[in-house]
Design a protein that fits this description.
By secondary structure, this protein is mainly alpha-helical. The protein is 86% helix and 0% strand.
Length: 197
């Protein structure tokens, strides 16, 4: 290997390491977002006792309306967290594609075969169907479990308070879930399409 190739490999490797570190930081932030879902889930559980306490201190409040607006506010917060998380995931997928290009180029300069396990962390994900088989299924499962909780828990509580508010909440939350899943599908399709590679 000549000096020019060694310098190029050195430069590519340093940039690869830098981008990998940025990617790791972003993935940590994405997983930290799940803590926010936990906080919102806990607030959903205790929102009924909090609203009952607020009503007992001021009888002028309409308890069912306060309960309804509280649950809608939490639903809006979930929507904001989910949208930010989806944007971060799209950016992380972009990192995977960038890192894949570095891996391919480094392997080429080192004279490694394309099917070599060397520098194959990101490039190998698509070949092994890791993203589609593992990530997509596990993320959809999480969205289903958390979405079911965030939709059904407030809906059941609101049914005991005011059935009209319960139906409105159910319709709005299902609409939000459908819109989110459509956005997720489009972002994921963009990532997994061969034209993006």
């Amino acid at each position: 290997m000549n000096t020019n190739s060694e310098q190029k490999i050195d430069y590519l490797y340093k940039e690869y390491v830098r981008l990998s570190e940025k990617s790791d930081e972003l993935i940590k932030i994405i997983f930290d977002d799940f803590k926010l879902y936990g906080v919102v889930g806990a607030i959903i559980v205790i929102w009924k006792p909090i609203s009952d306490l607020a009503i007992s201190t001021n009888l002028k409040f309409d308890g069912s309306l306060l309960l309804f607006w509280g649950f809608l506010s939490l639903l809006a917060i979930i929507g904001v967290i989910s949208s930010l998380n989806l944007m971060r995931q799209a950016y992380a997928w972009h990192f995977v594609h960038n890192l894949k290009a570095y891996e391919v180029e480094i392997k080429k300069l080192l004279g490694e075969a394309e099917d070599s396990w060397l520098f194959n962390f990101n490039a190998g994900k698509e070949d092994s169907r890791y993203i589609t088989a593992t990530y997509k299924i596990s993320y959809k499962f999480f969205a289903f479990v958390f979405g079911s909780f965030a939709i059904l828990m407030p809906f059941i509580v609101l049914c005991y308070s005011n059935f009209l508010y319960a139906v409105i909440y159910l319709l709005l939350s299902l609409l939000g879930l459908i819109l989110y899943l459509q956005a997720f599908r489009k972002v994921f399709r963009q990532y997994s399409s061969k034209s993006y590679l």
